[in-house]
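Usage

Read records sequentially. Each one opens with the input sequence:
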Amino acid sequence: MAKRVLVLQSYKPPPWAEWRCLCINSVQEWAATKSYAYRFIGDELFAPIPEQLMSKCQGVLLPLTDIGRLLWLQKLLIEGWDRVIWLDADILIFDSSLDIGADVVGREVWVSKGLQDGFRAASSVNNCVVSVTKESRLLDELLNATLTEAKKFSDPPHPRALGPDLLRRLDVEASLAVAPDIAMASPILVNALACNDPAPLSAHHSVWDGPVRAVNLCGSLVKDEDTALKAVISLLETPTRFSPRDKAPAVEIVHFA
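and closes with the structure output:
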């Protein structure tokens, strides 16, 4: 019997920037090609969060979304889905051959300006992708760590506290499996895609060393909607742009330990 798979996304009610609409549409279309069910929720994301944790987060939005997505994944598995895949609403899928395995989180190579004319690339993990099944311990591990950390908050938490920062610590303790083909576009990469500048992309690819079939545009860091739109259109028109074959400039690689 075929496994019942659901793709889940959430974002605030529209209107949305055009680039984000294209991202969400790309995920809906990808889910259809895979014969996966698709569900989009708005502020319902926060409904399962206990009032105590709402208070602990003191209105900082991103930690609340980090809690909400995990509680929704738990809820949907209890409802009977065999696998649920969370994808952030700023992920663009530009190659429909993308495959997301079970029990994985997101992979990240964060490219920024380095010393002199080079680049710095920090390898890490994140929760822009969370794919879980009934059988795995991944969701329990993430939920336990997230709720334990949230209960400790006394001051307003850092926006990354329950997302990349927490997953990075978990990954150091015991490596987390990652979705291999979904990259993270730092602002310098978004600009490079918009302006057709291969140097930052080559720096990323020299560390990533593999295909990229989808990318997180880091919507919380987008300052210029037009630049983000140009980056999205660039990838839809030329999917190979994120994986250039140009010789990489100098790259300082950072590993967290």
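Summary fields computed downstream for this record:
- The chain is about 40% helix and 20% strand.
- The chain has a mean pLDDT of 94.
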